[in-house]
Design goal:
Layout (H helix, E strand, L loop, with lengths): L1 H23 L6 E3 L6 E3 L11 H87 L1
Antiparallel strand pairs: 1-2
Length: about 140
């Protein structure tokens, strides 16, 4: 038990000294392992060069301009994809609405036909009642 404690403390001390040494040197890239994803993240700034060096500034500006162009192209592609998706959804919606309207029109036509048939039956019923009433009146005299 005592050996494991000493060994653990020694490893912690070595890790602490390594971390302190790495933190003192800005050019060292530090990595962290995430437990959930199992990926390695690199979180360090590039070594600091002279801020007044024109070639470094030109290279940095050129790199940023290239990155800006790439990001604009990606944004443009995303916009086109979004527009195409919206157009497709709009077309699908219009087709669905046209089918729905066709069904509504068909049902309205069926309802109108049924209403006309019901009116005809009712009219024929009243004509029959009238004819029967006239026949009863004619036979009773």
């Amino acid at each position: 038990m005592k050996t494991w404690t000493i060994l653990t403390l020694a490893l912690l001390a070595v890790g602490l000294l390594t971390a302190v040494a790495a933190a003192d040197d800005p050019g060292v890239i530090q990595t962290q392992s995430t437990a959930h994803a199992g990926t390695v993240l690199i979180a360090a700034a590039p070594p600091a060069a002279k801020a007044t060096d024109p070639t470094v500034l030109d290279e940095r500006i050129t790199a940023l301009e290239r990155e800006n162009v790439v990001l604009r192209e990606d944004l443009g592609k995303s916009r086109l994809d979004s527009r195409a998706g919206l157009k497709e959804l709009s077309d699908q919606h219009e087709a669905d609405m046209a089918r729905f309207q066709q069904k509504v029109d068909d049902l309205n036509a069926q309802f109108e036909e049924e209403r006309e048939r019901a009116q005809r039956r009712e009219r024929n019923l009243w004509l029959a009642v009238g004819v029967l009433a006239v026949a009863i009146i004619a036979t009773s005299n």
